[in-house]
Amino acid sequence: MANLENPAYILPCDATEAERLNQQHNLLFRVLGQRLLPSSIPLEKVHSVADVGTGTGIWLQSLASQAPQLSPNYDQRYYHGFDIGDAQFPSDSRSEDLELKFTTQDVLKPFPRVFRSRFDLVHVRLFSFALQEVNLKIAMENLLRILKPGGYLYWEDTNWTSVKETSGLAEGSAIKEAIFRNMRSRGLSSHIIDIVHRLGLENGLRCLSKADYHSDDYPDVNVLGALASPAIEAFLRKLSLNERLTNNSEEPGELETLFKLHQELNAKGLLRWKETFTTVVYQTPF
Ligand SMILES: C[S@@+](CC[C@H](N)C(=O)[O-])C[C@H]1O[C@@H](n2cnc3c(N)ncnc32)[C@H](O)[C@@H]1O
Protein backbone atom coordinates (compact mmCIF):
# COMPACT_ATOMS: atom_id res chain seq x y z
CA MET A 1 0.00 0.00 0.00
CA ALA A 2 1.32 3.42 -0.97
CA ASN A 3 0.25 6.79 0.45
CA LEU A 4 -0.74 5.56 3.92
CA GLU A 5 -2.47 8.67 5.22
CA ASN A 6 -4.28 11.29 3.24
CA PRO A 7 -4.40 14.57 5.20
CA ALA A 8 -7.44 15.83 3.25
CA TYR A 9 -9.56 12.88 4.36
CA ILE A 10 -10.89 12.36 7.86
CA LEU A 11 -10.88 8.53 8.04
CA PRO A 12 -7.71 6.43 8.21
CA CYS A 13 -6.28 4.89 5.00
CA ASP A 14 -4.57 1.75 6.27
CA ALA A 15 -5.02 -2.01 6.38
CA THR A 16 -7.45 -1.86 9.34
CA GLU A 17 -9.62 0.62 7.44
CA ALA A 18 -9.47 -1.48 4.26
CA GLU A 19 -10.73 -4.47 6.23
CA ARG A 20 -13.53 -2.34 7.72
CA LEU A 21 -14.60 -1.16 4.25
CA ASN A 22 -14.75 -4.73 2.95
CA GLN A 23 -16.78 -5.93 5.95
CA GLN A 24 -19.05 -2.91 5.56
CA HIS A 25 -19.60 -3.84 1.92
CA ASN A 26 -20.69 -7.35 2.93
CA LEU A 27 -23.12 -5.98 5.52
CA LEU A 28 -24.59 -3.50 3.04
CA PHE A 29 -25.00 -6.25 0.49
CA ARG A 30 -27.19 -8.08 3.04
CA VAL A 31 -29.12 -4.94 3.99
CA LEU A 32 -29.87 -4.17 0.35
CA GLY A 33 -31.27 -7.65 -0.29
CA GLN A 34 -28.11 -9.14 -1.90
CA ARG A 35 -28.26 -6.58 -4.70
CA LEU A 36 -25.46 -4.35 -5.95
CA LEU A 37 -27.79 -2.25 -8.10
CA PRO A 38 -31.39 -1.20 -7.44
CA SER A 39 -34.00 -2.31 -9.97
CA SER A 40 -34.33 1.30 -11.23
CA ILE A 41 -30.98 0.82 -13.03
CA PRO A 42 -31.34 -1.55 -16.00
CA LEU A 43 -28.07 -3.48 -16.17
CA GLU A 44 -28.45 -4.14 -19.90
CA LYS A 45 -28.12 -0.37 -20.50
CA VAL A 46 -24.96 -0.11 -18.42
CA HIS A 47 -21.73 -0.77 -20.32
CA SER A 48 -19.31 1.54 -18.55
CA VAL A 49 -19.20 2.06 -14.80
CA ALA A 50 -17.25 4.54 -12.65
CA ASP A 51 -17.03 4.06 -8.87
CA VAL A 52 -15.89 7.36 -7.36
CA GLY A 53 -14.34 7.28 -3.87
CA THR A 54 -13.91 3.57 -4.55
CA GLY A 55 -11.73 2.79 -1.48
CA THR A 56 -10.73 -0.87 -1.80
CA GLY A 57 -12.78 -1.15 -5.00
CA ILE A 58 -14.88 -3.90 -3.46
CA TRP A 59 -18.23 -2.71 -4.88
CA LEU A 60 -16.78 -2.41 -8.38
CA GLN A 61 -15.05 -5.79 -8.15
CA SER A 62 -18.28 -7.42 -6.98
CA LEU A 63 -20.29 -5.83 -9.78
CA ALA A 64 -17.73 -6.85 -12.41
CA SER A 65 -17.71 -10.43 -11.21
CA GLN A 66 -21.51 -10.73 -10.86
CA ALA A 67 -22.57 -8.84 -14.01
CA PRO A 68 -22.12 -11.78 -16.42
CA GLN A 69 -24.62 -13.88 -14.40
CA LEU A 70 -27.01 -10.97 -13.83
CA SER A 71 -27.34 -9.94 -17.44
CA PRO A 72 -28.64 -12.52 -19.98
CA ASN A 73 -26.90 -10.94 -23.00
CA TYR A 74 -23.62 -10.20 -21.34
CA ASP A 75 -21.07 -8.31 -23.31
CA GLN A 76 -17.76 -6.83 -22.21
CA ARG A 77 -18.08 -3.89 -19.84
CA TYR A 78 -15.66 -1.21 -18.76
CA TYR A 79 -15.14 -0.59 -15.03
CA HIS A 80 -13.07 2.25 -13.55
CA GLY A 81 -12.52 3.07 -9.86
CA PHE A 82 -11.38 6.55 -8.77
CA ASP A 83 -10.21 7.70 -5.36
CA ILE A 84 -8.27 10.62 -3.92
CA GLY A 85 -5.67 8.13 -2.64
CA ASP A 86 -4.35 4.84 -3.98
CA ALA A 87 -3.55 3.37 -0.53
CA GLN A 88 -6.47 0.96 -0.62
CA PHE A 89 -6.66 0.10 -4.31
CA PRO A 90 -6.70 -3.68 -4.77
CA SER A 91 -3.49 -5.21 -6.00
CA ASP A 92 -4.77 -8.75 -6.33
CA SER A 93 -5.00 -10.79 -9.49
CA ARG A 94 -8.82 -10.86 -9.27
CA SER A 95 -8.92 -7.21 -10.38
CA GLU A 96 -6.51 -7.94 -13.21
CA ASP A 97 -8.65 -10.89 -14.35
CA LEU A 98 -11.73 -8.68 -14.32
CA GLU A 99 -9.82 -5.94 -16.17
CA LEU A 100 -10.68 -3.26 -13.62
CA LYS A 101 -8.87 0.05 -13.79
CA PHE A 102 -8.06 2.26 -10.80
CA THR A 103 -6.90 5.88 -10.97
CA THR A 104 -6.27 8.53 -8.32
CA GLN A 105 -8.66 11.42 -8.78
CA ASP A 106 -9.98 14.08 -6.42
CA VAL A 107 -13.71 14.43 -7.08
CA LEU A 108 -13.34 18.14 -6.33
CA LYS A 109 -11.15 18.55 -9.42
CA PRO A 110 -12.43 18.13 -12.97
CA PHE A 111 -11.79 14.63 -14.35
CA PRO A 112 -9.38 14.44 -17.32
CA ARG A 113 -11.04 15.12 -20.67
CA VAL A 114 -10.83 11.46 -21.68
CA PHE A 115 -13.53 10.66 -19.09
CA ARG A 116 -15.99 13.35 -20.21
CA SER A 117 -19.42 11.78 -21.02
CA ARG A 118 -17.70 8.38 -20.72
CA PHE A 119 -19.89 6.45 -18.25
CA ASP A 120 -23.41 4.99 -18.29
CA LEU A 121 -23.31 4.66 -14.51
CA VAL A 122 -21.48 6.62 -11.82
CA HIS A 123 -21.60 5.12 -8.33
CA VAL A 124 -20.76 6.93 -5.09
CA ARG A 125 -20.97 5.31 -1.67
CA LEU A 126 -20.33 6.78 1.77
CA PHE A 127 -18.91 10.22 1.16
CA SER A 128 -20.40 11.67 4.36
CA PHE A 129 -17.00 11.68 6.13
CA ALA A 130 -15.19 12.62 2.92
CA LEU A 131 -16.68 15.83 1.53
CA GLN A 132 -17.36 19.13 3.23
CA GLU A 133 -20.89 20.44 2.75
CA VAL A 134 -19.58 23.49 0.92
CA ASN A 135 -17.88 21.18 -1.64
CA LEU A 136 -20.84 18.95 -2.51
CA LYS A 137 -21.98 21.21 -5.36
CA ILE A 138 -18.63 21.06 -7.14
CA ALA A 139 -18.39 17.29 -6.56
CA MET A 140 -21.82 16.82 -8.11
CA GLU A 141 -20.87 18.95 -11.13
CA ASN A 142 -17.68 16.92 -11.70
CA LEU A 143 -19.58 13.64 -11.41
CA LEU A 144 -22.22 14.77 -13.89
CA ARG A 145 -19.56 15.72 -16.46
CA ILE A 146 -18.35 12.10 -16.71
CA LEU A 147 -21.88 10.73 -17.22
CA LYS A 148 -23.31 10.15 -20.70
CA PRO A 149 -26.65 11.79 -21.53
CA GLY A 150 -29.31 9.49 -20.05
CA GLY A 151 -26.69 8.02 -17.67
CA TYR A 152 -27.38 6.97 -14.07
CA LEU A 153 -26.00 8.44 -10.87
CA TYR A 154 -26.30 5.98 -7.97
CA TRP A 155 -25.48 7.49 -4.56
CA GLU A 156 -25.61 5.55 -1.27
CA ASP A 157 -25.00 7.27 2.06
CA THR A 158 -25.89 7.86 5.68
CA ASN A 159 -27.55 11.02 6.87
CA TRP A 160 -25.80 11.41 10.19
CA THR A 161 -28.90 13.11 11.64
CA SER A 162 -30.36 9.55 11.60
CA VAL A 163 -27.53 8.10 13.71
CA LYS A 164 -28.48 7.42 17.34
CA GLU A 165 -26.87 5.69 20.29
CA THR A 166 -29.73 4.02 22.16
CA SER A 167 -28.07 2.14 25.05
CA GLY A 168 -28.92 4.95 27.47
CA LEU A 169 -25.28 5.05 28.67
CA ALA A 170 -23.90 8.53 29.36
CA GLU A 171 -20.67 7.48 27.59
CA GLY A 172 -22.68 6.70 24.43
CA SER A 173 -24.15 10.23 24.44
CA ALA A 174 -20.70 11.74 25.04
CA ILE A 175 -19.26 9.83 22.05
CA LYS A 176 -22.17 10.84 19.82
CA GLU A 177 -21.79 14.49 20.87
CA ALA A 178 -18.05 14.40 20.09
CA ILE A 179 -18.73 12.92 16.64
CA PHE A 180 -21.28 15.58 15.77
CA ARG A 181 -19.12 18.39 17.17
CA ASN A 182 -16.14 17.25 15.12
CA MET A 183 -18.22 16.80 11.97
CA ARG A 184 -19.54 20.36 12.38
CA SER A 185 -16.11 21.87 13.05
CA ARG A 186 -14.76 20.16 9.91
CA GLY A 187 -17.64 21.37 7.77
CA LEU A 188 -18.93 17.83 7.13
CA SER A 189 -22.63 17.58 6.43
CA SER A 190 -24.90 15.62 8.75
CA HIS A 191 -27.56 15.42 6.00
CA ILE A 192 -25.58 14.63 2.84
CA ILE A 193 -28.39 12.70 1.12
CA ASP A 194 -30.78 15.67 1.40
CA ILE A 195 -28.17 17.93 -0.19
CA VAL A 196 -27.41 15.41 -2.95
CA HIS A 197 -31.16 15.21 -3.64
CA ARG A 198 -31.50 18.99 -3.88
CA LEU A 199 -28.41 19.27 -6.11
CA GLY A 200 -29.70 16.45 -8.32
CA LEU A 201 -32.97 18.28 -8.92
CA GLU A 202 -31.22 21.64 -9.41
CA ASN A 203 -29.03 20.02 -12.08
CA GLY A 204 -32.09 18.80 -14.00
CA LEU A 205 -31.74 15.12 -13.00
CA ARG A 206 -34.74 12.83 -12.76
CA CYS A 207 -35.00 10.94 -9.47
CA LEU A 208 -35.76 7.30 -10.37
CA SER A 209 -35.72 5.83 -6.88
CA LYS A 210 -35.00 6.65 -3.24
CA ALA A 211 -34.96 3.93 -0.57
CA ASP A 212 -34.34 4.10 3.18
CA TYR A 213 -33.02 1.16 5.20
CA HIS A 214 -33.55 1.54 8.96
CA SER A 215 -31.76 -0.36 11.75
CA ASP A 216 -35.13 -1.12 13.32
CA ASP A 217 -36.11 -3.13 10.22
CA TYR A 218 -33.38 -5.66 11.10
CA PRO A 219 -34.15 -6.46 14.76
CA ASP A 220 -32.50 -9.90 14.88
CA VAL A 221 -29.14 -8.85 13.54
CA ASN A 222 -28.42 -5.19 14.16
CA VAL A 223 -26.78 -4.98 10.75
CA LEU A 224 -26.89 -1.21 10.45
CA GLY A 225 -25.64 -0.76 14.00
CA ALA A 226 -22.80 -3.06 13.05
CA LEU A 227 -22.10 -0.63 10.23
CA ALA A 228 -22.21 2.61 12.23
CA SER A 229 -20.08 1.42 15.10
CA PRO A 230 -16.86 0.59 13.17
CA ALA A 231 -17.25 3.82 11.15
CA ILE A 232 -17.48 5.80 14.39
CA GLU A 233 -14.46 3.97 15.76
CA ALA A 234 -12.49 4.71 12.56
CA PHE A 235 -13.43 8.40 12.82
CA LEU A 236 -12.40 8.56 16.49
CA ARG A 237 -9.16 6.68 15.71
CA LYS A 238 -8.15 9.23 13.06
CA LEU A 239 -9.23 12.19 15.23
CA SER A 240 -7.20 10.89 18.16
CA LEU A 241 -4.15 10.43 15.91
CA ASN A 242 -4.52 14.06 14.79
CA GLU A 243 -4.97 15.11 18.42
CA ARG A 244 -1.69 13.33 19.34
CA LEU A 245 0.14 15.21 16.59
CA THR A 246 -1.02 18.61 17.86
CA ASN A 247 -1.01 17.84 21.58
CA ASN A 248 2.26 18.41 23.43
CA SER A 249 1.13 16.52 26.52
CA GLU A 250 1.92 12.86 27.28
CA GLU A 251 -1.61 12.51 28.67
CA PRO A 252 -4.28 11.18 26.28
CA GLY A 253 -6.57 13.93 25.02
CA GLU A 254 -10.39 13.91 24.99
CA LEU A 255 -10.68 12.17 21.60
CA GLU A 256 -8.17 9.45 22.40
CA THR A 257 -10.03 8.80 25.66
CA LEU A 258 -13.34 8.57 23.78
CA PHE A 259 -11.77 6.31 21.15
CA LYS A 260 -10.55 3.89 23.82
CA LEU A 261 -13.88 4.09 25.64
CA HIS A 262 -15.73 3.28 22.42
CA GLN A 263 -13.44 0.31 21.75
CA GLU A 264 -13.97 -1.01 25.27
CA LEU A 265 -17.77 -0.58 25.38
CA ASN A 266 -18.18 -1.87 21.86
CA ALA A 267 -16.10 -4.97 22.57
CA LYS A 268 -18.48 -5.72 25.47
CA GLY A 269 -21.47 -5.18 23.16
CA LEU A 270 -22.79 -2.36 25.34
CA LEU A 271 -23.35 0.31 22.67
CA ARG A 272 -26.48 0.33 20.51
CA TRP A 273 -25.93 2.44 17.41
CA LYS A 274 -28.82 2.85 14.99
CA GLU A 275 -28.95 4.58 11.64
CA THR A 276 -30.78 4.94 8.36
CA PHE A 277 -28.90 4.15 5.17
CA THR A 278 -30.31 5.66 1.98
CA THR A 279 -29.86 4.90 -1.71
CA VAL A 280 -30.86 7.30 -4.49
CA VAL A 281 -30.79 6.90 -8.27
CA TYR A 282 -30.92 9.78 -10.74
CA GLN A 283 -30.87 9.89 -14.51
CA THR A 284 -29.33 12.71 -16.52
CA PRO A 285 -31.35 14.28 -19.36
CA PHE A 286 -30.89 12.79 -22.86
C1 LIG B 1 -15.88 5.72 3.61
S1 LIG B 1 -14.84 5.40 2.22
C2 LIG B 1 -15.96 4.54 1.13
C3 LIG B 1 -15.25 3.67 0.13
C4 LIG B 1 -16.15 2.92 -0.85
N1 LIG B 1 -17.02 3.82 -1.59
C5 LIG B 1 -17.00 1.89 -0.15
O1 LIG B 1 -18.21 2.10 0.01
O2 LIG B 1 -16.42 0.86 0.27
C6 LIG B 1 -14.70 6.98 1.40
C7 LIG B 1 -13.67 6.97 0.29
O3 LIG B 1 -13.68 8.27 -0.33
C8 LIG B 1 -12.35 8.62 -0.66
N2 LIG B 1 -12.28 10.09 -0.81
C9 LIG B 1 -12.21 11.01 0.18
N3 LIG B 1 -12.18 12.26 -0.33
C10 LIG B 1 -12.20 12.11 -1.69
C11 LIG B 1 -12.16 13.03 -2.77
N4 LIG B 1 -12.09 14.36 -2.56
N5 LIG B 1 -12.17 12.55 -4.03
C12 LIG B 1 -12.21 11.21 -4.25
N6 LIG B 1 -12.26 10.29 -3.26
C13 LIG B 1 -12.26 10.73 -1.99
C14 LIG B 1 -11.54 8.07 0.49
O4 LIG B 1 -10.15 7.94 0.15
C15 LIG B 1 -12.24 6.73 0.74
O5 LIG B 1 -11.66 5.70 0.00
TrEMBL record:
It comes from the Eukaryota. SUPFAM superfamilies: S-adenosyl-L-methionine-dependent methyltransferases. This is S-adenosyl-L-methionine-dependent methyltransferase. Pfam families: Methyltransf_23 (PF13489). The lineage of its organism: Eukaryota, Fungi, Dikarya, Ascomycota, Pezizomycotina.
